[in-house]
């Protein structure tokens, strides 16, 4: 992306890139967003996490001016969405859930089309297109029709097209859905690169791992409401499930350890014990002390903190979890 850091002529960024208060949207009888509040600090990555049909795309479409909200005090890039949607449009880039890439023309032609839409001069357009194609590893494919691209390449081209206007706030609606693991990791690297340039990223995802990897803050959308909001760590602390697991090679040792420790759950087949724990140093030490005084040595000790999957399942209920999210359960 053409370098554009604060101080080179761009207006000073406001501390809050996106804010929503009481955002509501219904389709007929169906309440999709039931008064949600969001605040995304400038330069951070925010993940809106939710199962299929939760309202993620609806939220993105509203905040990127594509559709209007029924109610809510909404600001993007310091501009009031209702009063000045044009200013919001100038500040943002959107990569939709479904590709904006035209398959009939080449990757380069797609890029030049975007440059035209942004009223760049011919020369500036060519320079920007070349720079972005290079950055997104699409130079070799640039002269081929986009319909011949792999899913990952199409996504990269889509994002490259979004960046033509050098937006400071980017909405990415499910940027990696349907990508293979390598392309997904590749996309994560690209998103991290944007963030290190100071771009604010609002992304939606069904993948807990993705939110965990990328986002500074995560909101879980369920049933039209924000079921929980915080850092990945904060969300993980919301729910129980942390434990320390000891594994033994000798059933006699496993039995003695179970006797020495209180409140264990035994798995006799795996010769393992699990002890509920917050994983703190104090708890760990107390377990080790008790094992030491009983003269017991475990073959393996692991600390398990609940992960976002646990949070997601607890908050959205098993019936609501899409198959794709189930597949990501580690
Ligand atoms: N244009 C529309 N007309 C009627 N219902 C819609 C429309 N767009 C979305 N919906 C409904 O709103 C709900 C949320 O959709 P969406 O925002 O696409 O969810 P997500 O992106 O989280 O999968 C779904 O039940 C969907 O069927
Ligand atoms: Mg969607």
UniProtKB/TrEMBL annotation:
It is a peripheral membrane protein. SMART domains: AAA (SM00382). The keyword Nucleotide-binding applies. Residues 18-248 form the ABC transporter domain. Its main location: membrane. Belongs to the ABC transporter superfamily. Drug exporter-1 (DrugE1) (TC 3.A.1.105) family. This is ATP-binding cassette domain-containing protein.
